[in-house]
Amino acid sequence: xxxxxxxxxxxxxDTSGSAGMEADLKTFEEMxxxxxxxxxxxxxxxxxxWSHDIFPIELSTIEKQIDTxxxxxxxxxxxTGMLGSAALVELVVNSIEKYKFKNIVIDPVMVCKGIDTIxxxxxxxxxxxxxxxxxxxxxxxxxxxxxxxxIPSIKTIDDIKTACVKIHELGAKNIIIKSGSRFASDxxxxxxxxxxxxxxxxxxxxxxxxxxxxxxxxSAAITACLAKGATIHDAFKTTQAFxxxxxxxxxxxxxxxxxVCHWALRK
Length: 267
Hints:
UDP-N-acetylmuramoyl-L-alanine:D-glutamate ligase, 9-stranded mixed β-sheet, two-stranded antiparallel ribbon, 11 strands, 22% strand, globular
């Protein structure tokens, strides 16, 4: 019997299915990893405006969910997504220590797509001061990375490198920063810093695509690779290939948004 790899995501639910826990589980499945969840919030979208309503799960309920996994199942890797309060960040930290979770991927969800401000400052501060040091891998976008690194903004590859070094000093073992579409250049860049060397992947920006859930799916793919025993460099390259096809084959959901195609490689 082949080994069954398992991964836990502590994240929010996106009712539209494009991001959050739904994106994580789809990614795990495509990467042949058994996915498990501890749900932190439920996000519903207004069908007329697509504004987001957030409904937090009680802390005691989240704790029970984590205990279900940590107390009886040993995940091969785990990741975090939306953590909406400092108290929840502390619960995650305590759970990591209590259950000795390994291959920890932190996706510091501090900003929503299309918004350039920190959603919950007290949660972001707790992630920075208490959670980052447990990260085997952390995957911030440029806005989140600038906050974590205490620099004004990130606009160039050199800025990304500076941020990587500063975040490494906070305790994260490996840092992956994604430029996304915020750079003025014609390319998109993903940078991996392993504490010693930089690995930079650049590709042309794509047009007429949808990328809701791309960040969640990226960090979930890294998590799945680590669960299966991959090195960080192999995980980075595998995730690049997975996400390229997922974004190229993205599709429209409604007049407001669209989703990446998690099964694109299989298709």
